[in-house]
Amino acid sequence: MAAPMLRWGCLGRRRALALVDGRTRSRRGAPTGSASDRIREQSSVAQQPVHTAQEPRKGEHKWAAVVGLEIHAQISSNSKLFSGSQVRFAAPPNSLVSFFDASLPGTLPVLNRRCVEAAVMTGLALNCHINKKSLFDRKHYFYADLPAGYQITQQRLPIAVNGSLTYSVCLGKPRNQMVTRTARVKQIQLEQDSGKSLHDDLRSQTLVDLNRAGVGLLEVVLEPDMSCGDEAATAVRELQLILQALGTSQANMAEGQLRVDANISVHHPGEPLGIRTEVKNLNSFRFLAKAIDYEIERQINELESGGEILNETRSFDYKLGCTVPMRDKEGKQDYRFMPEPNLPPLRLYDDASSPPAGTASQQVVNIDRIRETLPELPGVTRERLVRQYGMLPEHSFTLLWYTCCGCNWSHGCVLTDLTVSQVSGALNADTRQSPCPTMLTQDP
């Protein structure tokens, strides 16, 4: 079968870029934490935890919590995953919709090279194995803002697998004791976003905006290696910093560019894991931590009072500060996965393998070339600040957080003996601001 064609991630131009071989899996819901928001179910790869994250200290309590995460990050690209439609936040409704986005008959997907390179770069930064061959699949389900009735995703063979995310948790009363933890990354996959349903309760109607339909997403699945809300929020915050340092996603939670689904269960240490619940579409670190901690407490209280935990999807109501049930997951939904017939396998190359004869160099995604362009990651920057300038570890976290968030981080300098110019030089030294030239195509 012929290799899929890749195009540059810019509006108005579709250059043939042979991205050979690929698979995908996907899904996503609306970026909101309110119970009234409609949230989309997702295939939860992390729903079968491998082991307990951490058992409680002796005498602390008799329950252990297990938390796994599915994180959806919007890829920083000028156009969508399979169409040339522009990607822009807060555009007029239905103003950025191509024929393919609207699922008109006869339209075909054209894979965005920028999105593939972003997935490879993210996988390398998270110590993943990059599959040189990945596949795309159709995941069938009905929503009003999903015109095709299916989502193109990577169910069978994703683009990256078996990685790790290292983060540091603050412990102690003053929270000045840093402990390093690692969460396993099960997989990273490419997928389409859906549109957005806007519910007008006053007029009892629902309006559909397809501007977001087809936008490229990275789904990062973390194994259930966490045990509380603060730990999960810290892991997601570290991933956000990595994505922003790479330039693969702006990861702005306020604009729905980073959304989290949390899979939570409790059990007695030494016993099998309990029945899990899934809390969908958490779009802030504070809501994520609160939702997980509330759900852990709710499950413990339910079990201690003689009740049982249902395998269900829940939403976090930030006004009430609690999770509320959305739908029952006891009956497994049949998504009727099937290979995407319009996208051949996605093939990637490295220095040890060469593309077919006659393939233009700009049509090839080379894993080793992307590896060479990786910038300095946040963890390395923090270590350099501590080692070179004698900064306290917790202060290095604060300064780097200010920088990556685009805030006036100079206010953080009051925590150290360094001047603003010293910190600025330390943060900017030995870093590469342009991660991958071929991914930085600008709109004409």
Automatic annotation (TrEMBL):
Mind listing the GO molecular function terms for this protein? ATP binding; glutaminyl-tRNA synthase (glutamine-hydrolyzing) activity; transferase activity
Pfam families linked? GatB_N
Q: Where is this region: Disordered?
A: 22-59
* UniProt keyword Nucleotide-binding, yes or no: yes
One Gene Ontology term from the biological process aspect of the record:
mitochondrial translation
Listed GO cellular component terms?
glutamyl-tRNA(Gln) amidotransferase complex; mitochondrion
Keywords noted in UniProt:
ATP-binding, Ligase, Nucleotide-binding, Protein biosynthesis, Transferase
Query: Do the record's keywords include Ligase?
Result: yes
Q: Which residues form the Aspartyl/Glutamyl-tRNA(Gln) amidotransferase subunit B/E catalytic domain?
A: 66-351
Spans of biased composition, class Polar residues? 42-51
Q: What is this protein called?
A: Putative glutamyl-tRNA(Gln) amidotransferase subunit B, mitochondrial
